[in-house]
Description:
heterodimer; A: mainly beta; 6-stranded mixed sheet; 5-stranded antiparallel sheet; 61% strand; B: mainly beta; 7-stranded mixed sheet; 4-stranded antiparallel sheet; 57% strand
Amino acid sequence: GIQVEQSPPDLILQExxxxxxxxxxxxSVNNLQWFHQNPWGQLINLFYIPSGTKQNGRLSxxxxxxxxxxxxxxxxxxxxxxxxxxxxxxLGNMLTFGGGTRLMVKP
Amino acid sequence: xxxxxxxxxxxxxxxxxxxxxxxxxHMGHRAMYWYKQKAKKPPELMFVYSYEKLSINESxxxxxxxxxxxxxxxxxxxxxxxxxxxxxxxCASSPQGSIQPQHFGDGxxxxxx
Lengths: 107, 113
């Protein structure tokens, strides 16, 4: 099956710092999504981005499908950004998740 | 994603009990999914329903039995579970097809005693 790798696995930031999370995938995909899972387990859709660049407030994402990677950029981080960030790719109806990046933002 | 509603939020059950997890969406989506997530791991796909028919079963043990009574509802019937089945169970839906994004419910946190 398709392999999805995220880096870094863990990240600690001071409030206000910027960061870039990376997602590499092993095959062509139809769909790529970024999620934020908060400490209560809620999986929140951040971006649906099979290709191109999108921005939503302090977050932006870029997917280069031909090179099989996606980046999630967090600017001016806040403590509420803490949690686990997952990218997930779809082949057919199957969504495969990467291992996640665990982010802690310190005040 | 609060457009997909899961009940109950928490469930504690013994190994001999029978219980059901419920998932509901009213977005007109025609594909629905069950995922299992263990602590500190990513969600893993269990089942996919497409137009109310089971299309994917990821070799899930028969003690988990999915059911899709109509296009808005998805159930997961549980029977004779093991302690290692304790996990967060997530439901998702999508319009249909792999090019559409999936929307997740808040999950049911299941503990098996």
